[in-house]
Write a structure and sequence with these properties.
Elements lengths: L2 E4 L16 E4 L2 E8 L12 H18 L7 E8 L5 H12 L5 E6 L9 E8 L2
Parallel strand pairs: 4-5
Antiparallel strand pairs: 1-2, 2-3, 3-6, 4-6
Helix pairs in contact: 1-2
């Protein structure tokens, strides 16, 4: 089965192009790269974990839309938080965005590659 890229590689504020695409599609599956709480210029949004979570999910929704999918098509997410103390606020913002749709989810605490990033969310969705 062919792997089809979705979207273009992101460009950092310093002009460097990141060697990845926002998502790929293989058959009826969409594999989304980790979404961060950044704006269109790849700058972190102001605020804390709730704001970054909302923006990361909005970025994820945008990528899914390019593939003809929505959050309701998400089967699994993997979430990285930089601070376990942020879990409750993250979970509230995540629940607000996903509503009654309950995807499988793994959540871990880890450092992230972007300084100041508090959360990263990747997803696998169905494109059917």
């Amino acid at each position: 089965m062919p792997v089809t890229p979705i979207g273009n590689p992101p460009v950092l504020p310093n002009g460097a192009t990141v060697p990845l695409v926002p998502a790929t599609r293989v058959g009826d599956l969409i594999f989304c790269s980790g979404a961060l709480g950044v704006d269109a210029d790849f700058n972190l949004v102001e605020g804390g974990i709730a704001e970054q979570t909302r923006q990361a999910i909005a970025n994820l929704e945008s990528v899914l839309a390019q593939a003809g999918a929505t959050l309701a098509d998400v089967a699994k997410t993997t979430v990285w938080l930089t601070d376990l103390a942020d879990f409750a606020a993250f979970n509230a913002a995540y629940s607000e965005a996903f509503g009654g749709h309950l995807a499988a989810r793994s959540t871990v605490t880890s450092a992230l590659a972007i300084p100041g990033a508090l959360v990263e969310i990747e997803a696998i969705a169905s494109a059917s």
